Each structure stands twice: as structure tokens, then as C-alpha cells.
Amino acid sequence: MLVSLTVGKVDAGVTVLLTQDKRLIEFPSILLPPNISSGSIVDIAVSRNRASEQAAKDSFAALQNRIYETFGVEPPTTPVLRCRNATQTSVVLEWDPIQLATADLASLSLYRNGQKAGNIPRPLQMHSTKISGLAVDTEYTFHLVLRTSAGTFSSEKLVVRTHKMTDLSGVTITTGILSGAARERLVAAVERIGAKLVADPGAVRIDTTHFVTTEGRGVAWEKAVELNIPVVRPEWVEACEKNGRILGVTKYYLDAVRPTGPNDNEPVVPPPQQQQQQQQPPTPNQNKELPQSPSDAPSSSTTPPAGAGAASSSHTAAEPSSAAATSPAEAHDDEPETRDDQKVWLGDQAGHEQKVALRTKQDASRAAEDGNDGDDGAEDDEEEDEDDDSGRGSHANGNGNGAAADSSLNKTSTPGDGNSFQDVDL
């Protein structure tokens, strides 16, 4: 198609062209022939390029096919759940890395027995998890649910049963610092009980159930403590083998007191001295106080007669000095008798104790009665014979003092408990 146009105004970038019906068309100046000025007439031929149009269409369709085949054909993969290890109270689950293709991840959740147990943190980096606090010898069902922008994908259900107390196949041990002999014994014991030993010493994994070492130091020990993995001594494995079941780890910690027996169920045997003390029957109270007789009342303590008289002052003045001189000796002489009585009273049987106690009581009461009779006689003599000579008064005083001395001797021979006023020298 050929079109004739008149040049109206020529500018640096755009030229104004006029049609025959006086319409204005802006046309790029660079596409016009050179030496064009206002009033010039130019012919412009316009035609459709079908070959180029078809080529462009084919190129665009090919691009769309490549995009669809690359990002729209492969959906996110469904997670596959597996059981890595199981013990009496825990289960370790693992799955393959998640392939999302072009979809965006929303969440990855774990379900236990049909109920949501929780979301997996960092699902693109974590491919395993550990579930603790399970019941012994109980069956559980687990499955994963993957939610993405391309849809929701659920894994197959996995049935896991926890082990019995006698099943030690789930025990996975990581070793720490051990001597050569201790390591050999540990390896042999682990093989006998059917447990698993991590091939790489010091490698603490998610399925590690116990960390066995004799020294609390090292990078592996720090990691085990950080992950709350029990750190025990090698004796724990030997104790489990002897008992034929898994045991608690409280008595086998590094800082725990070592058990006295080969296993924690063995009773502690007391020392021989404690056994003898337990076998001896309880003895009755040998220091039991006897009831106090009326004759042992404070009246038994003799007091000098009040009415001695002034006439006998010369005779009575000499008697206190002699009494003071003889009283310590008499007290010392009476002490062995008292001690002998106490020994007899403590060493003999119950029947003999009562006899000795009654005998000493009777002696004391008789001595007290004699002293009281002497005192009464002295008082009567003093009242009747006030004007008598000093000899009769001194004779009366002598009788009274003799009776008092006899009562004091009999009193000291009375056994006492060491805590009453009867043992005090007045």
C-alpha cells in the first residue's frame, strides 16, 4: 500500500506530515530521506510481514512450554516417615529431605495417634526428631503432614511399639574418655546385651541414649550434657547385664555415690557392730529410782538438841572438833559400802535387786527410829533435870550424839541415784 504525505514541519526528532484530508501524522525524522523540508511530498509504502509474525508467535509458545515443563510438572514430594530407634520411653523418627519444587512451604507437622503432636522446627534443615515420655511396651501411630502453596501432602502412617524393660536392643551408647581395658569390657558387655555402640567414639547423635565415660570433660561430654543425655559410668552396662533389664542411671552418674552392691536392688548390709546392737534386746532402765520411804524424809537429818544447857558447854565444845575430825574418815569408809551396794544392785537380777533395796531401807528406818528415840530421851531429861550437875547433862548429850552418829552412818549406806539430796553430806 502506497501513501503520499506532505511534509508540514521538520523538527530534530519528529516531523509533522499532512494527509490529503488534512490529518496530522507525527513521523520520526530519522526515517525520512535526507534534504526534506516543509512542503515536500513523500511516498510511504506499508505492508504486513507474515513470516516474521509467525516466527515471533512460535518463539513465544516455546518459551511458555519450557516454563511449564520446568516449574509446573513436578509437585512437592510426599514425606516418607521411618523409625530410626526405639527404647522403653522414647522413639526417634526420621524422613527424607522435603522436595517442594516451585511451591512454598507452609508447615510440617507430626501427628501421634491421630492428634497433632507439634510442628517440626526448620523442616528444610531437620530430617529427624525424638519423642520422649512414652509408656513402656505401648503401640503408637505416627504420620507427617506437609502443607505447601501447591497443596497438602500426608505421609503413610507408621506404627511403632516401645520396648519392654528386658529389651535392651534400643540402647545406643556413645563412649567418652575410657581406658583400654574398660573400653574392651564395655564393648563385650554391649554385644552380650544386644545394645548398639556408636562406631565413631565421641559422636553424639540424636539417637544416642547414654554417654559412657569415666571423666567429665571433652567436647563430646559437653554436647551430651547440653542435649540432656545421661552421662554414666561403665558399671551401668554391667549392672544391666547382671539384672537382665534396664536400670535407672541415678546411682551411676559420674558425681553419684558408688553403689555398695553389684546392682541397685541389692540391700546394703550393715556393719557387724550394728547387727549386734540390733540383736541385743532393750535392757530395762537400771537407774530407775526407788520410792522414798517415810523414814528417809528430811527429818532423818539429825540436828543438835536445842536444850544442851550452858553447864555442859565445856564438854560439848570438845565434841564438834572430834566429830569434825572423824566425819571425813567415816564418810570415806562408808563410800565403798555404798558403791558395793550399788554394784550389787546394778549387776544382779530383778528379784535380788528388790531384796537388797528392801534390806537397805529397813536398816535406814531402824537407824532413824533409834535416833528419834535418843533425841526424845535427851529432851525429856533436860526438861526434868534442869538443875542437875553437868555430868548428867553431858551424859544425855552423849547419848543423843551417839544416836545421831549411828543414824548418819546408816544413812550414808543407803544407795542413792546421785541426783537427790540424800547423797549430800550435811
Can you offer a commentary on this structure?
The protein has 426 residues and is of the alpha+beta class. It has 4 domains: 2-46; 81-161, Immunoglobulins (Immunoglobulin-like, Sandwich); 172-252, BRCT domain (Rossmann fold), CATH 3.40.50.10190; 316-423, no CATH class. The chain has helices spanning 50-71, 180-193, 219-226, 235-243, 272-279, 313-347, 350-384, 390-412; strands at 2-10, 14-18, 24-28, 41-45, 81-86, 91-95, 105-112, 115-119, 128-131, 139-148, 151-154, 158-161, 172-175, 196-197, 210-212, 231-232. The strands form 4 sheets. Strands 7, 8, 10, 11 and 12 form a 5-stranded antiparallel sheet that branches. It is rod-shaped. It starts with a strand and ends in a 14-residue tail after the last helix. Residues 262-271, 284-288, 294-357 and 387-413 have low confidence and may be disordered.
